[in-house]
Amino acid sequence: MPSTAGAGLPITTSHVESTIKQINRRVKGTEKFWSEGGAEAILQLRAEVLSETRPLEAYWIDRCRKTTGERRQKATISVSA
User: Fold this and answer.
1) Which residue range(s) make up the domain with 60?
2) Which of 36, 41, 70, 81 is deepest in the core (most CB within 10 A)?
């Protein structure tokens, strides 16, 4: 079984720590107040943009194909007095 260093893999966590620090700076920077849900949504969007499978691009292509141009209206209930 080859060793980590022998396989050319990093033996330090500095790359991961640097990435986490960069994410924290972007999400938790000064004058930024995120809810947990909002921060999670932004991180998810960023992950999808960086993904090799391009799920966000596929979503928009599919959505545009299905768009009719009509707005869906909610049915209203009328109450007579």
Assistant:
1) 15-66
2) 41
